[in-house]
Amino acid sequence: MPKWFMPLAGLCAVMFAASPFLIANADYESTMGLVQKIFYYHLPSAWIFLLSAIVCGIASARFLFRGSPRQDRLAYAAAELTVLFGAIVLVTGPLWARKAWGVWWQWDVRLTSSLMGWMVAWAYLLVRKYGGPGSDKLAAGLALFGMANVPFVYVSVNYWRTIHPATTVVPTLPVDMGLALWFSVACFLLLFVLLLRLRVHLEEQRARLDALYLSLDE
Amino acid sequence: MRFLLRRATRLRHGFGGQAETRRHGVCLVRAIGISVLLLCAPLAAQQPQPQPQPQQQEEFVPVSQLPAQDQLPAAPLLVIAYAFVWLALFAYLVSVARRLSYVQREVERLESDMKRGSRS
Predict the structure, then answer these.
(1) DSSP of B27-76
(2) d(CA B101, CA A198)
């Protein structure tokens, strides 16, 4: 592992430990009250979910057109993180919605397209695990569809009628709410970089193990 | 006879002209009225609305009779959400660490086997 990994991991742990204090100090939202504080982890994890789908898609495209195994390892790692952060979004969202909207789930375009993106990432992992020879390229094709879904997820709330808050909420946040949000975003972004590096390292070790098995067979 | 006919024609034209003028006048008054109404409508809309008086409470409603989203406490949902995030991240970290340690042990074992094989 690189030298920067452990200091940054320590910093990330400290930041995550500090984030609840900033979130607790942020003002209550007028109509939703306490439950709106789910937002400070829900939104950053949603952004990281979309970011990891983009990373997975770009790395898959480079793997498809250049055949680089390094990009394939990066895509595999990013797909796993898409599933992880997508799960966080799809669990924290309904918990918030139950109180704010009165329902756990609404089949509106933002929620449905997010679920689709999450299922595409699951499909990527399942194809990689059970698809047999050639599944890496098949999965890379799936990742391109996952990436194409990302802008649709992001702009959906501005173009279709939905009860999900619009993207205009973030620029209009007051200082204390904005501070808590951007601090959480920094925490999640740092965590994403660290987890991605760790997961890529696992794939590198697996590739090394495969090479050793092959050399033993020969 | 001709004189009478000419007079009758003049009178008819005269009356017809007056009726037309009156019709035009009515239309003009209507148009002005509508324009004034249209111009005044936004001004009327901008007039401060009287504040609704708080209604006198005639009965007490128990909290259990409120709609579901109003009586649902927010704190457990918030705690579950944050706990899920922390647990999911921790579980994933443990999972990656376990997989990594297994692969690294295998790599070390194979490398030592290969060294032993090359010596013998």
Answers:
(1) HHHHHHHHHHHHHHHHHHHHSPPPPPPPPPP-SPPPGGGS-HHHHS-HHH
(2) 12
A173-206 burial, b if ≥16 CB within 10 A, otherwise e?
beeebeebbebbbebbebbbebbbbbbbbbbebb
What is the rounded average pLDDT of the residues B40-68?
A: 61
Q: What is the ipTM of this complex?
A: 0.93
Those residues of chain A whose CB sits closer than 8 Å to some CB in chain B are 20, 33-35, 37-38, 41-42, 45, 84, 87-88, 91-92, 95-96, 98-102, 191, 195, 198-199, 201-202, 205-206, 208-209, 212-213, 215-216
Q: Reply yes or no on whether the pLDDT at A56 is more than 90.
A: yes
Q: Does B72 touch chain A (CB under 8 A)?
A: yes
Residue with the larger pLDDT of the pair A157 and A46 = A46
Query: A34 to chain B, minimum CA–CA distance in Å?
Result: 6
- Chain A residues with CB under 8 Å of B106 CB are 209
Distance of residue B108 Cα from the nearest chain A Cα, in angstroms: 9
pTM tops 0.80: no
Q: List, in sequence order, every residue forming a beta bridge with A147; answer none if it has no partner.
A: none
Strand boundaries in A142-217, DSSP class E: none
What is chain A's mean pLDDT, rounded?
93
Chain B residue closest to A217 (CA)? B114
Is residue A89 within a helix (H) or strand (E), and if so which, with residue range? helix A69-100
Q: What is the pLDDT of residues A18-35, one digit of tens each?
A: 999 999 999 898 888 888
Domain ranges of chain A: 38-217
Predicted local confidence at residue B24, as pLDDT: 63
Q: Which residue among A99, A198, A216 places its CB closest to the CB of B77?
A: A99
